[in-house]
Amino acid sequence: MSEPSKRSDSSERHEAIDISDFVYAATGARLRRLTMPDGSHWFPAVDVCKELGHTNPQKALSDHVPADHRESLETLTGGYGLSVPAGREWRRDLNVISLQGLILLVNACTKPACAPFKQWAAEVIETIQRDGSYTLEEAEVQPLEPGAPIAYAMPEQVAEAIVRLEAHNLQLDEELANGQRKSIELQQETLDVQRETLALQKESLTLQREMLATQKATLAVQQAMVRAMERIADRLDALVLGPRMSAAHAGVLPTTESVLADWRQRLSVTADVWAVAVVIAPVLVEKGELREPLESLAARTGLSVHRVNECLRLLRKHACIRSRGGAEDGAPVYVLSKA
What we know:
InterPro entries: BRO_N_domain
Structural class: alpha+beta
Helix content: 55-70%
GO molecular function: DNA binding
Number of domains: 3
Distance between the termini: 135 Å
Protein name: DNA-binding protein
Number of strands: 7
Order of helices and strands: HHEEHHEHEHHHHHHEHHEE
Pfam families: Bro-N
Strand content: 5-15%
Keywords: Coiled coil, DNA-binding
């Protein structure tokens, strides 16, 4: 292609332009490549097509790359007596293209980023057509080692393409870094909100516990007040409203017979009710109150607990007896109703 290639020693190949920079300027990406023992470079077709925007690699190769510049990886390495490189990315059936095939795909690409390289390639062809050759300018600084190959300056268009690509990549890196910083800030804000929420939940739980404790304390006070009022009522009944009050006013103390006779007049007494009445009347007359569990009354009357409770309810309904809460052991407390 150029005069520098004519000066290259066949025993030691020297590239006028570094292949990595050359491909980077052509495609805008650092591509995987295999360099064969004869110095030829081959690239995965899928990588090249992806960077150049060819959505159908098979069609792009068929349309733009001749068969002698594309090959399967297994066939290519086998031709040099080499094995397929290790790794899942280097499959045996992977399609690879030569450097010339890469340049053909670049020329077929419509991406604006490829324009500088294509313009330089066109300039090279025009110069060769006009002058018969194309020569790279020698670099201002040459190697000092004896016998070292001549160093050449990178073409201006290629250098500018690389500079633009590097600037673009730096911008992308900066945008990525900014995005990562914003992501970290959002994560931190989310963490702060979660911590505040947790703190509020803890405060709410503490308040709920305090409210529950207050409710328990209030309930205990109410229960104590109820017990105190019951004790006061007991004293008043004992002092003023005892079970024999009406009889005392009449000058006659109640007896079991008078109580039962009074109850007969108040309600239609069934056998079950009369059985309960006969059991509880003597206790009410003698002790002034009844503190006996329903189970005990059921055993004494031969009735069920449920039926005993119904009989007592009927006696209360007709003002024969009245309830005065419950005893410490849970038994109901009854006294005679006042006439």
